[in-house]
Design a protein that fits this description.
Elements lengths: L1 E3 L5 H6 L4 H13 L8 E4 L2 E4 H22 L8 H14 L20 H8 L6
Parallel strand pairs: 1-2
Antiparallel strand pairs: 2-3
Helix pairs in contact: 3-4, 4-5
């Protein structure tokens, strides 16, 4: 069984955040409500991936953007430990994403840096 997920471009999401973005979020949520979704194949713009991989990607994306929102409104950027422990390993597995135009190059951090410090740095974010 396969699930077809239409990947929107950044331009489309920015052009219509109240419509297209909301529709994509609703479609993604509904897809994850189907039992066994993690075992399905998901078709993305860069190729086919497992449902588990895509779920990990979406979760990591939400964690990073939670940090962005907190940073942007001047609030505490510390995130829940279980999410912060989860996300950096996923981003590290993606490699340098700066070529996508969506991220700055990763920033250096000490080898013993906490996941809370590593996560923003992996995505080229400063501050926090």
């Amino acid at each position: 069984m396969e699930f077809e997920f239409e990947q929107l471009t950044v331009r489309e999401r920015l052009a219509c955040p109240g419509g297209t973005g909301a529709a994509a979020a609703t479609a993604a949520r509904q897809a994850w409500e189907v039992p066994g979704t993690a075992g399905l194949t998901v078709h993305l713009s860069f190729g086919d991936v497992s449902g588990r991989y895509h779920l990990d990607q979406l979760t990591t994306d939400l964690v990073v953007h939670t940090w962005d929102l907190a940073q942007g409104i001047g609030k505490d950027t510390r995130l829940p430990g279980d999410l912060v422990d989860f996300a950096p390993d996923r981003f590290a597995g993606y490699g340098d994403l700066s070529g996508s135009g969506l991220f700055d190059p990763p920033l250096p951090v000490p080898e013993d840096a906490s996941p809370q410090t590593r996560l923003p740095a992996l995505t080229g974010r400063r501050g926090g």
